[in-house]
Specification:
Layout lengths: L1 E10 L4 H12 L2 E7 L5 H9 L6 E4 L2 E4 L1 H11 L19 H4 L1
Parallel strand pairs: 1-2
Antiparallel strand pairs: 1-3, 3-4
The protein binds glutathione (GSH).
Length: about 100
């Protein structure tokens, strides 16, 4: 397992785009600090850092990176050795969380 101290991942429960990132992390045995935006001040904190509440968002050394595909592209660069691709084929490509759509 590799833990990255410079990365924080903001997530939303039930978000399929967050699930993609989660799968990629697990597949490659990577760990980052995880923050659910439904908890505490995480939502406000994310907006303060990145300007929007969209999840997933990876904070890299204090800078926000949105978009699951871009996050996974970035994480690929942090894998030591061979990158293991995760299967996302069963995940929906739309947000099912009504709260997040507003
Ligand atoms: N294209 C984006 C879609 C992300 C997305 O739509 N996330 C939803 C949660 S399922 C969200 O955060 N919506 C709230 C918002 O965009 O403000 C990705 O791949 O990361």
């Amino acid at each position: 397992m590799t833990m990255f101290d410079d990365l924080i991942l903001y997530e939303l429960p039930g978000c399929p785009f967050c699930a993609k990132v989660d799968r990629f992390l697990k597949e490659n045995d990577l760990e980052v600090e995880r923050r659910m935006i439904t908890e505490g001040t995480n939502r406000e904190d994310l907006i303060a850092i990145g300007g929007k509440k969209q999840c997933p968002c990876l904070i890299i050394d204090g800078k926000a990176l949105y978009e699951s595909d871009d996050i996974i592209d970035y994480l690929r660069t942090r894998v030591e050795g061979e990158v293991k691709e995760a299967d996302f084929s069963d995940l929906k490509n739309a947000c099912p969380v009504p709260w997040a759509q507003g």
